[in-house]
Amino acid sequence: MDPWYLTHNCDLGEGEVSVTLYPAGDSSVFVTQNWQDKQEIGHYKHKLSGQACQPIRDALRATNYTRLASKEDLAPETATMDFGEGIAGELPTVVVWALPDVPQPISQVAMQIRPLIDEVVKYPLRTLRGSAKLDSPTIPTGDPLQLEIVLSNCGIETLELHTPTNASSDGLIRLALTLAKDKPEQLLTEKDVDEVEIARNEIRIVSADGTVIREAPAITVLRADEELRLRVQKSGYLAPGNYRAVVKFSCAAGPIPAERTIEGTLTMKLDRFEVQ
User: Which of 45, 164, 230, 242 has fewest C-beta within 10 Å?
Assistant: First the structure.
């Protein structure tokens, strides 16, 4: 019997998760936004046994999923979930549903596959991990926000990124800061939340000891465990009060071959801070 594989893709909001279960070889996961509590995006690969994968295939087939396909044409911007099957060397047959209108049996299979995704993402292949930290938890009114961002290659393969301070990265790299007043989600209003873009001239590349690197190549090459450190000074008025924030780093491949880079939006939480 020819080796089989199963595919699953699901929109997550700012990105998606793409899964291939292949018991005859390595199974893989691509995530283009944070998965669960991991501040990572990228490609993961790991060998899963047929014993682990077969129940997912059996559960999917038991739904008679090909007969549950959406009857409507879906607009390109529609958030979707899909499942598919194929034989090695052939394209899969894929069935797509619009979110959140996914048949309950399909949603149950999507939940059943999650532990396998969690297992594969323990094995980063070409993956970017991020962290961000403010210089101080208290900021005088009118002073800029100052923070450091660390982007590290936590996979085993070399990773290439467009350098955020280089003009050639325009349209391919985006850094943004989302600020919200520190109060319960259900009490937040539109005025309480703001997203501001971090411009190239507000970013500096630094070494581990904080020295500014003034000449950086257009492409940053990160080998396993290497990191890119960014110093950010973001000006703008914040009224006195308590805040929480996240930094978002979005990257596109552009001219870098897909097998040497990653794409997606990496979200990094900042500690709560106070403007005094």
Answer: 242
**What is the architecture, at CATH level 2, of domain 128-275?**
Sandwich (2.60)
- The CA distance from 198 to 147, in Å, is 12
Cis peptide before 76 (omega within 30 of 0): no
pLDDT tier for residue 76 given thresholds of 50, 70 and 90: confident
**Residue 237 DSSP label:** -
Reported as a single tens digit per residue, the pLDDT across 119-167 is 999 999 999 999 999 999 999 999 999 999 999 999 999 999 999 999 9
Say how far apart CA 243 and CA 126 lie, in whole Å.
33
86-95: per-residue pLDDT in tens? 999 999 999 9
pLDDT at 2 over 80: no
CA distances from 165 to 141, 145, 159, 172, 190 (A): 28, 18, 18, 12, 31
**Domain residues of the chain, as ranges?**
4-120, 128-275
The topology (CATH level 3) of 4-120 is Mago nashi protein (3.30.1560)
Q: Are 218 and 165 in contact (CB under 8 A)?
A: no
DSSP 15-78: SEEEEEE-TTSEEEEEESB--TT--EEEEEEEE--HHHHHHHHHHHHHTTGGGG--SSPPPTT-
d(CA 257, CA 253): 7
pLDDT the model gives residue 210: 87
Q: What is the pLDDT of residue 96?
A: 94
Buried b / exposed e along 153-173 (16+ C-beta atoms within 10 A): bbbebebbbbbbbbeebeebb
- Secondary element (H or E) of residue 242: strand 241-251
